[in-house]
Amino acid sequence: MKVKASRKASFNAAHRLYRPDWDEEKNNAVFGKCNNPKFHGHNYDLIVSVTGEIDPETGFVMDLKVLKDLIKEHVEEALDHKNLNLDVPEFKNLNPTAENIAVVIWNKLRPHINKNKELEVVLYETPRNFVTYTG
Ligand SMILES: Nc1nc2c(c(=O)[nH]1)N=C([C@H](O)[C@H](O)COP(=O)(O)OP(=O)(O)OP(=O)(O)O)CN2
Ligand SMILES: [Zn+2]
Questions:
Q1: Fewest C-beta in 10 Å: which of 24, 43, 56, 131?
Q2: Is the C-beta atom of 10 inside 6 A of ligand 1?
Q3: What is the ipTM of this complex?
Q4: Which residues pair with 121 in a beta bridge?
Q5: Where along the sequence do coiled-coil regions lie (predicted)?
């Protein structure tokens, strides 16, 4: 019997969506207001879920206090109050779209989650725009 255990978190960050190899016209056509050269920010909401068997001794799929601390150390400290394009090495050559941010978060957390458990990251960029990555 598998159960999904989840932890919510949030961070805020600035970004700009653009490709340096495209001219301004094309960047504006594809990325619109998200291509603002002075950047813009979002309050990101994150749901990290771990799915697996319940440990019969603890009753936990995973201790959610441990998951909270992992998110704080590996996600919030890396991304919160940062300019994703300028401050976060993973986005030096990668557009910080919601999809790419979700993949980066998943990759940061995966090494710290038991191999027998599945990991899912849901990232809300706005209250209505969200992406899901499961590896
Ligand atoms: N597939 C994707 N599409 C878009 C992304 C993305 O990361 N992946 N990002 C953006 C913008 O950065 C940003 O999310 C603005 O999107 P928009 O829909 O314009 O949102 P609003 O500011 O209008 O706020 P809502 O609350 O969503 O109405 C665009 N596309
Ligand atoms: Zn944006």
A1: 56
A2: no
A3: 0.91
A4: 48, 133
A5: none
126 CA distance to ligand 1 middle (Å): 7
Fold adopted by 2-133: Tetrahydropterin Synthase; Chain A (3.30.479)
pLDDT in tens, 68-103: 999 999 999 999 999 999 999 999 999 999 999 999
